[in-house]
Amino acid sequence: MAYEDEIEQKITGSTFEECKEKLFNLYGKNFRITNKVVDFRPGGFLYLKKKPVTIVSYVVPHQKSFNESYSEEEQLARNREAILQQAGNVTNVMVTRTLEEFKNDITSQLKQMQQMSAASQDKHESIKKIEEMLEQNEFSLSYINMIEEKIRNDFSLEQLDNFELVERRVVDWIGESITIAKETAFRPPHVFIIVGPTGVGKTTTLVKLAAQFVKAFAAEHNGQRPAICFITTDTMRVGAMEQLERWGKHMDSHVYKAEHTEDLKTLYDDNRANMDAIFIDTSGFSPNDATHIAQMKMLLEVPGMNPDIYLALMAGTKTRDLQNIMQNYEPFGYKSVIVTKCDESEQFGNVISVMYDKHKAVSYITHGQVASRDITKANVVDFLTKLENFKIDRIHIEDKFGGQA
Ligand SMILES: Nc1nc2c(ncn2[C@@H]2O[C@H](COP(=O)(O)OP(=O)(O)O)[C@@H](O)[C@H]2O)c(=O)[nH]1
Ligand SMILES: [Mg+2]
């Protein structure tokens, strides 16, 4: 037969024997093998593992090439014909069986291809694991997607198998996503304002900031005490004034009350010349109480006051609530975030995610009820060491982020 005129075709199998068997099933003895190569092609989960594949080149005296697109029925009919022609001594039962096997072969190959295509849409084990770990740390969905995207862009498929490498890089990225607020220059009277929802710890934190200010001032001025005072605009809540007065007494400082902008303006003007710092406490509202938030914003607008405004966020707040709060307090133009009650929370992914999404910096974290002690300047290393389940290379992150405290 004129094989030479035929187009060379290829068939693959896991072994040469398998290829030959496939060819026999297709064409009986009516084929000629022209070449054989063993190739390593990607296979397995996500095509990551390589397995050997035997590729056999062959020719058959057919008019149509095997590679041309026949319908499955056409293909079967064509091969039934070929087999019947070639195997005159084979019984019909055997032919049917061979065809049945061929059909099964096609079906199983089809299935395999479908599985492979499904697997390619699947995630690599390392990505899955990182995703789970980020979820455990309560990072937001959009933050997790951002990290996954970075992993995909940064790692080759082979590198993905090295989980520790991926994990280490992810820790770095989390660190890079945290912005620590720059300290503002001291400008007496330095005005500090904390805004935020009810009960997050605004008053306590304000007192902590004052205590810290006193300490730092004294350290820089040969032990001299600064002149400070408190002003509360929280005139509605029962006990709010008393709470602050207790602290004021403790710190030997005046506590004033301001109900309207004019009150605040007068108090500011009266004190600006002789105060090193003024600490303004505000009342908390529900983050959805836009009217009161707007009123308070107006109250705080005293010309020339130029305050440092902080938004207090409680560490244990749900991501969506945090997003909502940050959004609604946006009009205050707060400089940075103070994360409160960190001692009551184990995961910080929520806060990190939301601050990242909203491009906000963090200045302090608070971690207890003791005013003279439980506040720390925020630093990246602390946030990273609090990540649950992530292996943390302390020396590496100290080297990389230690200077940003
Ligand atoms: N565990 C813990 N409790 C805190 C912290 N800061 C404030 N608190 C407590 O939270 C409650 C509300 O605090 P407060 O300052 O009155 O909140 P405000 O309504 O936002 O002014 C009080 O019982 C505080 O003692 C903190 O960092 N850790
Ligand atoms: Mg308060």
Automatic annotation (TrEMBL):
Predominant place of localization: membrane
Q: Which Pfam families match?
A: SRP54 (PF00448)
State a GO cellular component annotated for this protein: plasma membrane
Q: What is the membrane topology listed in the Swiss-Prot or TrEMBL record?
A: Peripheral membrane protein
Entry keywords, A to Z: Bacterial flagellum biogenesis, Bacterial flagellum protein export, Cell membrane, Cell projection, Cilium, Flagellum, GTP-binding, Membrane, Nucleotide-binding, Protein transport, Transport
Q: Which InterPro entries does this UniProt record tie to the protein?
A: AAA+_ATPase (IPR003593), FlhF__GTPase_dom (IPR047040), P-loop_NTPase (IPR027417), SRP54_GTPase_dom (IPR000897)
Instruction: Show where the SRP54-type proteins GTP-binding domain sits.
Output: 189-389
Q: Where in the cell is it found?
A: Cell membrane
The UniProt similarity line reads: Belongs to the GTP-binding SRP family.
Give the protein's function.
Answer: Necessary for flagellar biosynthesis. May be involved in translocation of the flagellum.
Name-wise, this protein is Flagellar biosynthesis protein FlhF
